[in-house]
Write a structure and sequence with these properties.
This protein is α/β, with parallel strands linked by helices and about 425 residues long. It has helices at about 10-15, 60-65, 130-135, 155-170, 185-190, 195-205, 220-230, 260-265, 275-285, 330-340, 365-375, 385-395, 400-405, 420; strands at about 40-45, 70-75, 75-80, 85, 110-115, 115-120, 175, 180, 215-220, 235-240, 245, 250, 290, 300, 305, 310, 325, 340-345, 375-380. The longest helix is centred in the middle third of the chain and has 15 residues, at about 155-170.
Length: about 425
């Protein structure tokens, strides 16, 4: 999936603004504007609490759980000896200190990943012991706190599952895992196929079954179809694009144009085909949900266009999402739900430059817009903000929520536990 904002949780909640979205072209009748079957939308800790700590570390995952995440999301790649580790990409150059370690300097090389050449240090050139003992994580986003760089080691998938299960027991609630199989075709060509390794890890921890708090996700399609024949665990088809153009339409430049296994197989089309009614019907044959890039649900266009690009309308000297305005929501959520598919968009981030002008600089407003649209969960780098926004959304839509929030355990309703009750799934 593709300077930390100084908001505190209290300030974000207090500053939440009301705003109106353009009317969608298709009505979405779901009652109370929310997730189905009485469930609250899931908060998925994207790479852990990656807005605060270096991504894909046990510390980042643990912080996401402390901040209220229902699921933690490890991206999975394979080491030389076939151990699954949590890294965003096979190339570790941007998310670890490996480039600063002289003992590994000669391992820097070029490799093709999904048809495009990269240079760096690839997980498949290292053993698990080398990674565990020597390589440490760094913050991949320059605007975020760099003070934790080099402190935390890279975990295995087994360790991530163990953490989720242990933290769930400690907190008295279920904490799930939401692994992504990264570049499945690439790993298959290396002889390090991910799929059975993922299932074996889940089996070892008793989570390879339909009722387990597990979603397995992929941007490719063939490996999800393979997994469907091997497990009853819930599967999610990720849906990407390269960029959003000035008018709000998508740029489908490679390699973000289509699932890479389509490219290998010679199948035409783009990711956008998967969010049509016909595409969603196809997805339903092998998956339980979709994980679309959030502009597929609510896109945005430049407030002002100069030379086919956004103009700096807010005068901050930069051109980014703050210079864009929201377009009407699409029918993707409604169409996916009509097929019985869950919808978990990605990725929600707090930085001001990532927020469309409609959100008035407040990330809570973005979450509220998508909760109201009816998503079943979402991926966030800032689980605390997502949880606060979800609480506000529940208070707006559930007439009993305020009473339960105030009275907590003193309420006659046995399930009422204040804020934790509001966020229970």
């Amino acid at each position: 999936m593709k300077t930390l904002a100084s908001w505190t949780v209290g300030a974000i909640a207090a500053a939440a603004l009301l705003f109106s979205l353009p009317s969608p072209s298709h009505a979405h009748e779901r009652g109370a504007g929310g997730a189905r079957d009485g469930q609250r939308p899931l908060v998925i800790g994207h790479r852990g609490a990656s807005g605060y700590l270096p991504e894909h570390t046990l510390e980042s995952y643990a912080l996401a759980i402390e901040l209220g995440a229902d699921y933690i999301e490890p991206d999975l790649v394979a080491t030389k000896d076939g151990v699954l580790i949590a890294r965003h990409e096979p190339n570790m150059i941007n998310t670890t200190n490996v480039g600063q370690l002289p003992q590994f300097a000669k391992r820097k090389r070029k490799a093709l990943v999904d048809g495009f050449e990269e240079e760096g240090f690839f997980a498949s050139d290292f053993t698990w012991a080398e990674i565990e003992q020597s390589i440490r994580a760094v913050q991949a986003f320059g605007e975020r706190d760099q003070g934790f760089n080099g402190q935390y080691r890279i975990p295995s998938f087994d360790e991530v599952i163990e953490l989720a299960q242990r933290k769930g027991r400690e907190e008295g609630r279920t904490v799930g895992v939401y692994p992504e199989t990264k570049h499945p075709t690439y790993h298959q060509r290396l002889g390090l196929a991910l799929e059975d390794r993922v299932l074996n890890a889940l089996q070892r921890r008793g989570w390879n079954h339909r009722g387990a708090p597990v979603f397995i996700q992929s941007f490719e399609q063939a490996n999800l179809k393979y997994l469907r024949g091997k497990t009853s665990v819930k599967l999610v088809q990720l849906i990407d694009a390269n960029d959003v153009k000035a008018d709000g339409s998508f740029d489908f430049s490679a390699p973000f144009d289509r699932p890479y296994d389509w490219t290998v197989a010679g199948r035409a089309g783009t990711f956008a085909d998967l969010v049509t009614p016909q595409g969603l019907a196809e997805v339903r044959t092998y998956a339980d949900g979709i994980g679309p890039w959030k502009p597929y649900l609510i896109s945005s266009a430049c407030v002002s266009v100069v030379n086919n690009a956004c103009a700096d309308v807010n005068g901050d000297g930069r051109i980014n999402d703050a210079d864009r305005k929201l377009l009407a929501p699409t029918a993707v959520v409604a169409n996916a739900h009509a097929q019985g598919l869950l919808v978990h968009p990605y990725t929600f981030r707090n930085e001001q430059r990532r927020l469309a002008s409609d959100f008035a600089g407040n990330p809570v407003n973005e979450y509220l817009a998508f909760y109201e649209l009816g998503v079943d969960g979402l991926f966030t780098d800032f689980a605390d903000t997502a949880v606060v926004a979800r609480s506000l959304w529940v208070l707006k839509n559930d007439p009993d929520a305020a009473k339960c929030l105030v009275q907590g355990k003193h309420n006659r309703q046995g399930a009422c536990r204040g804020l934790r009750w509001l966020n229970a799934n």
